[in-house]
Design goal:
heterotrimer; B: 274 residues; alpha/beta; six-stranded mixed sheet; four-stranded antiparallel sheet; 9 helices; C: 366 residues; four-stranded parallel sheet; 13 helices; 37% helix; globular
């Protein structure tokens, strides 16, 4: 068996990955183990990285001294490490986790591997909500507006697709596209009428950033992300049943419409909070589940927890790049797109058609 | 076991099935036959509660399925549909495990017992060796067997099969039907399956139900009989043992072709007339 | 026919009176000449490198860009404006416009929604020239106006403060009063010189480091920018100067919060922000989607040295009012050095000299 950890040229990928099955044998177990624990070293690494310049040893020192109640360092060092860097790192991990699990869940519910948590009009709705609060109705809190309009858009898409008590998958995807188009048009209206100074802020928001995250901001969103993710994780086996098809699932006794609703609502809430906190971060919810499937296969019992772990690791490392690789603050979507697009191209080239519909 | 009483059903405004009534005793294998569009798939879906009827009742073990929840029903009735999509390449075992849904509580996943049971079912079907193979790599016949095995993992008393031999070559057709027959007999299962080849009914079924395609579907006035003697008040032409049902007259009425019924080595066969 | 507003010789104590007197004489005679030569045109090159012929003393000029319009007022062209675009934050400006141009209320607004010019409304004003904001010779509006109405289009694109000199000279040429243009340029230069005369006396180590905050909070001005020059002239140091990253020379830089903390500015200066006020930052409030609680450790916040250019009209430093903006900043960040400067007096004298109206009443100087 070829070593999958080496360079991923198309021909070298083991046949099982190409067939969408994941690795086999001991490699699989090792890879799964590595992914599962990856958030811990990613967290430690991220805490050591930053433009303020705190040495590795000092990072531990500062945390230790705060825990023991001594004040051995300058107060600005404490502020930077514990009030600027720490909430930002945690937010990146929570959002990465939430968005990746939501993506995996929606791919299973919609039975379509090209689905992203933003597909049902969520990102267009949230972008419009944010732009509205930034440029027009400035008394509206930006995060709240983004959250509400993101959910409104998804709700609209859902109710458009619902006929006779059932929600056919194709209808859902189509109505998601239409909803996204509606809110994009509304967003354009806001952008046209906004003064150029608001435009800068709107554009930055749309491209995604954790720069503005502080403890109060984090505290407004973390609970919903955690609860929503836990619900999806607890129900993850049911996704296997649902993924086989509506009739097959119904025949096995599943209340298909209720579970679809639970999954979609959970994924929507988590994604909407993520968008409210960080703006739109493209492609993460789409490619992280695929990366996990390449390692561990399609079984949702493993897919969801691993997506949570890998998503947290991935996004926090991306955010490290965004805030500390160059002097300036880069928008997140630029990085995730630059990484995600070639990965996606590779994915489309390697997985055989029989692995997907 | 199964009582179907004056069942009518359809889609949108199109009535496909009209006033069908028959009973199925426990342990019987019943073949549902008829031309394309006669409503046999519709009938099966209604019995499996995958579709709601326009009127009439279906009773399983004496209970009206209309007042039984999907979850309750699935412990007794399992359906296998005609076509299976393969969006995700689950292994055969994982697919069978989904059949354990009625017995697994909300926040749980299948346990060791469930896995053992599914492996046993795979053994019954002689496909245990496919346990870890992804469904995308299985042949048509193997895939069909896996889906039928999945239905049995539900531990049902009634098995509903929609054209179980579609897209299969001769060898696999025989293999699948043989397996169904053996398992049904071994576990005293009640089986209702739609088939398109009347000869399979002769070979495998205890009883047959023959349906006609409603004239309305061909765009003509349902009040006017298309052929002399056609009774449009019900979709059902006949029910009974296969030999009683599959007479040349009935076959001609249902399929619109002339056939002869011949006997060969103690078996009946339907062949097109000269 | 262009009119001139006769200005009193200002009692501005630092102004070179002789220069003004000569300028006035030359300007008056130049204008007299212009009145005779009705068909005289002047060839101008706009900021995009496009050349055009404009009738001198053109009496029907449409302005779709505010800063050039302000400059036009300054050189005495108020009566020649026949159409304007929509104003940003009009509440700050309308009193001024009405004070300078008695016919302001009747001036038609050529509807624009940030890029869409209403050609019919434009044609109705029968303009000689259209002035708009543009970096690109072939932009849609320019092409549309020129091809359908056959009117020259002057594109304004200011990136550096020196651009203002060119703009003033060109606007003065259009009005037909180049001397007045020079006067305006000279006035601005001398105002700035007065300010730097004071600020240059401040020793290097007493100059405060200033973080310039644009509307998106983490966006600041790099070392090669107008805001940077403003700070320097006001006797401060752009805090990004102390940063050792090559990106600091960009005109606009977006910084991660940690970098701002590392730079630890002594002053934070906001460009006009309708939602965020200096108090919000000092008190660590949550406003407009930003939470300033993590800014509390910065020297600027701890010392309460957070300020804002709180009037987008008055302090628009891409117009002739740059000295006013600089003065405000200077007084805020170096209060001791500029202690005997009375802002209201300075503004009033400036406005009278520049526009012929007083401040803050915007009534014509008596």
């Amino acid at each position: 068996m070829a070593n999958p950890a080496r360079r991923l040229t198309v021909r070298q990928l083991p046949a099982t990955i190409r067939a969408g099955l994941g690795l086999q044998g001991p490699w699989r177990t090792i890879a799964i183990g590595l992914v599962a624990i990856s958030p811990i070293p990613a967290f430690v690494f991220s805490m050591m990285v930053g433009s303020f310049g705190i040495s590795g040893g000092d990072v531990f020192g500062v945390i230790w001294s705060r825990l023991t109640g001594t004040e051995a360092y300058e107060s600005m060092t404490y502020t930077v490490l514990l009030d600027i860097r720490l909430p930002r790192v945690i937010a990146a991990m929570l959002v990465g986790m939430g968005v990746s699990v939501s993506g995996a869940v929606l791919q299973g519910v919609l039975r379509n591997p090209l689905v992203d948590p933003y597909i049902l009009g969520l990102s267009a709705g949230a972008a419009f909500g944010a732009a509205l609060a930034i440029a027009v109705a400035t008394w509206l809190p930006v995060q709240l507006s983004a959250f509400v309009f993101g959910l409104v858009a998804m709700g609209l898409a859902y109710s458009m697709a619902r006929t006779g008590g059932r929600v056919p998958i194709v209808s859902l995807i189509l109505s998601g596209v239409i909803t996204a188009a509606i809110f994009t048009a509304l967003l354009s209206i806001v952008q046209i009428t906004a003064h150029e100074r608001s435009l800068q802020t709107i554009v930055r928001w749309i491209m995604g950033s954790f720069n503005a995250v502080t403890w109060p901001v984090l505290s407004q969103g973390w609970a919903l992300i955690v609860v929503g993710t836990i619900v999806m994780l607890l129900l993850r086996w049911r996704l296997n049943v649902l993924a086989l098809g509506d009739d097959e699932a119904r025949s096995a006794g599943m209340n298909v419409e209720r579970y679809k609703a639970i999954f979609i609502v959970s994924a929507a809430l988590v994604s909407a909070v993520a968008v409210a906190m960080a703006g739109i971060v493209a492609l993460v919810g789409l490619i992280v589940p695929h990366m996990v499937r390449m390692i561990a296969g399609p079984d949702h019992r493993i897919l969801l927890p691993l997506s949570a772990a890998l998503g947290a690791t991935y996004l926090v490392l991306v955010d490290d790049l965004a805030r500390a690789a160059f002097g300036v603050e880069l928008p997140l979507s630029i990085i995730t797109t630059l990484i995600g697009a070639p990965f996606f191209w590779l994915l489309l080239r390697t997985t055989k058609a029989s692995g997907w519909e | 076991m199964l009582q179907i009483d004056r069942l009518s059903a359809g889609y949108e405004r199109l009535q496909v099935l009209r006033e069908v009534s028959f009973d199925v005793r426990r342990g019987e294998i019943v073949a549902l036959l008829g031309p394309n569009g006669c409503g046999k798939t519709t009938l099966l879906r209604v019995v499996g509660k995958l579709l709601l009827p326009a009127s009439g009742t279906v009773r399983v073990s004496g209970r009206d399925i209309g007042s039984t929840s999907q979850a309750e029903l699935s412990k007794t009735v399992a359906s296998v549909s005609q076509v299976h999509r393969t969006t995700f390449p689950f292994t055969a075992l994982d697919i069978l495990l989904t059949g354990r849904m009625p017995y697994i509580s909300v926040f749980s996943s299948p346990g060791a017992d469930d896995i053992r049971l599914c492996q046993e079912v795979l053994d019954w079907f002689g496909i245990r060796h496919l346990e870890k193979k992804p469904i995308s790599k299985l042949s048509g016949g193997e895939r069909q067997l896996v889906m039928i095995a999945r239905a049995l993992a539900q531990e049902p008393r009634v098995l509903l099969l929609d054209e179980p031999t579609t897209y299969l070559d001769l060898r696999n057709q025989i293999k699948v039907l043989d397996t169904i027959y053996q398992q049904a007999r071994a576990q005293d299962l009640t089986v209702l399956m739609t088939i398109h080849d009347p000869n399979q009914a002769f070979a495998y079924a205890d009883r047959a139900v023959l349906l006609r395609k409603l004239a309305a579907l061909e765009g003509t006035d349902p009040e006017v009989a298309t052929t002399a003697g056609q009774d449009e008040s019900t979709s059902m032409i006949a029910t009974g043992s296969p030999s009683d049902v599959l007479t040349p007259a009935n076959v001609a009425e249902a399929y619109g072709v002339d056939v002869d019924v011949i006997e060969h080595a103690h078996r009946r066969l339907i062949v097109p007339a000269d | 026919m262009p009119s001139t507003t006769i200005r009193q010789a200002s009692t501005w104590r630092r102004m070179t009176i002789s220069g003004i007197a000569i300028g006035l004489l030359a300007g008056t005679s130049g204008l007299a000449a212009a009145q005779d030569a009705a068909a005289e045109t002047v060839s101008l090159t706009d900021f995009r490198g496009k050349t055009m012929d404009v009738p001198v003393g053109a009496d029907s000029v449409v302005f779709l860009v505010e800063n050039a319009m302000n400059t036009f007022y300054a050189v005495g062209g108020a009566d020649n404006i026949s159409g304007i675009g929509t104003l940003w934050q009009p509440a700050y400006k309308e009193a001024f416009f009405a004070g300078v141009d008695p016919d302001y209320a009747d001036t038609p607004v050529i509807a624009t929604t940030d890029g869409a010019v209403d050609l019919e409304a434009l044609a109705a004003t029968d303009p000689d020239l259209v002035v708009l904001w543009s970096a690109d010779i072939d932009d849609k509006d320019t092409t549309a106006i020129e091809s359908s109405l056959g009117i020259p289009v002057y594109g304004v694109f200011l990136t550096a403060f020196d651009d203002l000199t060119k703009l003033t000279e060109d606007m003065a040429a259009i009005v037909g009063d180049p001397a007045r243009g020079e006067e305006v340029v000279a006035q601005i230069a001398s105002e700035m010189a007065d300010i730097t005369a004071i600020s240059s006396t401040i020793p290097e180590d007493e100059r405060p480091t200033v973080y310039w905050m644009w509307g998106d909070v983490f966006g600041t001005a790099g070392t090669v920018s107008t805001a940077n020059d403003l700070i320097t002239a006001a006797g401060g140091i752009n805090v990004i100067e102390t940063w050792d990253d090559p990106a600091k020379t960009d005109e606009r830089v977006v910084l991660p919060m940690e970098t701002i903390a590392a730079l630890d500015p002594e002053v934070i200066y906001l460009w006009f922000n309708p939602e965020i006020d200096p108090d919000d930052i000092i008190n660590g409030a949550q406003v407009a989607g930003y939470d300033f609680s993590s800014w509390s450790g910065l020297s600027a916040v701890q010392n309460g040295r957070v300020f804002e250019l709180d009037d987008p009209f008055l302090y628009d430093f891409m117009t002739g009012r740059q000295p006013i903006a600089t003065l405000k900043i200077a007084k805020d960040i170096n209060p001791e050095a500029f202690a005997d400067v009375d802002l209201n007096v300075e503004y009033d004298e400036f406005f009278q000299a520049m526009y012929g109206v007083g401040y803050p009443d915007y009534q014509p100087a008596g």
